[in-house]
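Recall that a protein's primary structure is simply its ordered list of amino acids. Everything else, from secondary elements to tertiary packing, is in principle encoded there. The following example makes that idea concrete.
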Amino acid sequence: MKNLFNLRHLLLIFGMTMGTTVVGQEACTVERTDELIIIRMPKDSRLEFTTHYPNTDEALLCIPAAFTLPDGNIQGAYMVNGRMKNQYNRHSKVSIKGRSFTLAPQFTTDNGFQQMCLVRRHQAVHFRDNSHEIRRAICKESEQADAIIVESRKALTMNEFAQLLARTMVTAVYTDMGSYGYGWYHTKEGLNYLSSLYFYKRKKQTNWIVSRRSAPSSQ
């Protein structure tokens, strides 16, 4: 058991895959360009915003969503099971439904969170932040498209990342990164880690975007 833990820890550090996947589920697919990593969830999946961290054998993908404040609270309002918590801030309201999401002045579903909009109607939002970091966003390539997760392959400013996404995305919303950026997803090859160097901050994360397999429809 100790050797298995050490192996998993080494894989986390180097961002490598662990050779297991979610039993009975389709897996995520990954496209890599010179600038971006694009993660697509399978058609038999659904997205949700949650404040409960899933085990890696319970979901297809898990990344942090809204910002977590230094006091451990979630920044901005959020909706879980139709119940809204916290107060609105100036960030966009992201409503999750099925395999996609919408932006609107109010939450339009019973599940969602607030976060910074990067791209709206193919137009990049301007930011004053000039720091260079690895960036991540939940995006749509068209209004009717499923959501995808996009991460930069090198450190960018917020403006650079938004302008890069605006080339191909109609909508893009930032997701928490930096030292809170640890996440994971399943491909057919196994379990893959994101921002694996920040695994030590996992217990300080408070909320996540999770992709799960859709429940079978009753006949």
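Residues 1-24 have pLDDT under 50 and may be disordered. Residues 15 and 84 are 35 Å apart (CA to CA).
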